[in-house]
Amino acid sequence: MRKVFIITAFVSLLVTGLLSYAVSWWWLITFIIVVLLIIMGIYDMLQTRHSIMRNYPVVGRMRYWMEDIRPKMYQYFIESDIDGRPVNRIDRSTIYQRAKREMDTMPFGTQLNVYEEGYEWLSHSIAPKDFNSLNHDPRILIGNKDCKQPYSSSILNVSAMSFGSLSPNAIEALNGGAKIGGFAHNTGEGGISAYHLKQEGDLIWQIGTGYFGCRDEAGNFSAEVFKKNVNRPQIKMVELKLSQGAKPGHGGILPAKKNTLEIATIRHVQPFTTVASPPFHSAFSSPKGLILFIQQLREWSEGRPVGFKLCVGRKSEFAGICKAMVELDIYPDFITIDGGEGGTGAAPQEFSNYVGAPMMDGLAFVHNMLIGFGIRQHIKVIASGKILSGFHILRALALGADGCNSARAMMMAIGCIQALLCNTNRCPTGVATQNPQLTVGLVVKDKKYRVANYHEETVKSFVELCSAAGVGEKEQLTRSHIYRRVFMNEVRTFEDIFPSLQPGCLLNGNIPEKYKQDIEAASADRW
Fold it and tell me: Which of the listed residues 224, 267, 375, 518 has the most CB atoms within 10 Å of its CB?
């Protein structure tokens, strides 16, 4: 670390200087080498582009040397299904290249196994659309009949990551990137900090089961505190978190090492203690209660769009929410679908690996339910689960989403190297730590532009894919545009794998057999 380098440099300079003067001139060579290393270390500490070198002068350069000499194939990480079988490989260096505006093309053809089960591709058109004629900043208007302040959202936004899980510099860089790029930044359930507000980027205020930023002394939801915080100009939408993909049904965890006095003040909890949010909400206890609570939040927020986020679990419970919407004629402005493959800084292994529907399954189900109940037109659907590339955005929109949120790719854009130390407060890049000796490595004025660059280039990639598919508007994407190899000799479209429903079929009694049990078990009055 920086202090260790400074002390070591001073001692080495003093010792080699004395030895070269008093013992032998041969020590002068060592002294010169030490001086050169000190100059190199000072440069590393002063530069702003590389967090590792800034936090670990001289020795941090070894990471970049290793990256240069290792085989290219090792720059790939694996997205796996629940059994650990590799189903796709994404070159994570593409994220870094886009963030730095470096060349992100690749030589010598794809390095994916196109005959491997799980390989997916877009069916292109012989008559593609002219890329230059397409809208390069596709957006969605979020807000239904009860919303007084609709929000024009980018199709790609920063997913929920709390201050506390992430460092002050990381939060500020993400929000600064959102400001530059014209997209939104989800606060995560940890409340609204000064670092969310300083760069003046658009915010989606997420409220979890702990009600951080809108709770009373006992930890219950407080309408008065909510109204005091929600009417800030930066807050464009409110998201009520029912569950998150990394640990659905569990509640959030803030390790004691990360719970500083500042964070505790924002969350209204005791500092230096492990903060575990409850696994369920105390403000409502039924599907109807949820929908009425969302209506109240919309009124208290002066008509801002209000929605909820969940990882799909018991399907009858979501069907019950749909029944409640129809009965009350009240609808959330948006629903965010997280996947069981979602990431986090701290979660029990069994929950991360074995609980909750994967994002694509949950997304297809929710879209079908809203179509089947005849209420899809009232609600925007946002996909949140390992969205890393333009193809991932296109795949999600083809399945039924209107837009996407991304967390891990945005973290990589500000320097995350997946050191897997998020829960230890020892993140070497200053992204997921509250240690000021490490957060100093993440320079906001540099990293916020990388976030904006990554967003711009990834959305551009999505538009290019639409052009190749012969699609002029994102609304024209369908499940038939995406193919997946399910066996060596069998390929199916997403329409085959995730069959669509006819509008209103769940209301007129024409219920497909696969949904009958869940629809019959669903209730608007109980979970």
Answer: 267
Amino acid occupying residue 133: S
3-state secondary structure at position 204: strand
Q: What is the CA radius of gyration of the chain?
A: 25
Burial 256-270 (b: 16+ CB within 10 A, else e): eebbbebbbebbbbe
Tens-digit pLDDT profile for residues 244-300: 887 888 877 777 877 888 888 888 888 888 877 888 999 999 999 999 999 999 999
Find residue 166's DSSP bridge partners.
163
Angle ∠(326,400,146) on CA atoms, nearest 5: 40
- Let me know: does 189 contact 206? Beta carbons within 8 Å: yes
Domains and CATH numbers, the chain: 2-68 (no CATH), 75-118 (no CATH), 136-490+515-520 (3.20.20.70)
Per-residue pLDDT reduced to its tens digit, 202-241? 999 999 999 999 998 888 999 999 999 999 999 999 999 9
Residues 6+ apart with CB under 8 A from 370: 322, 335, 376, 379, 381
Tokens representing 432 are 């997921």
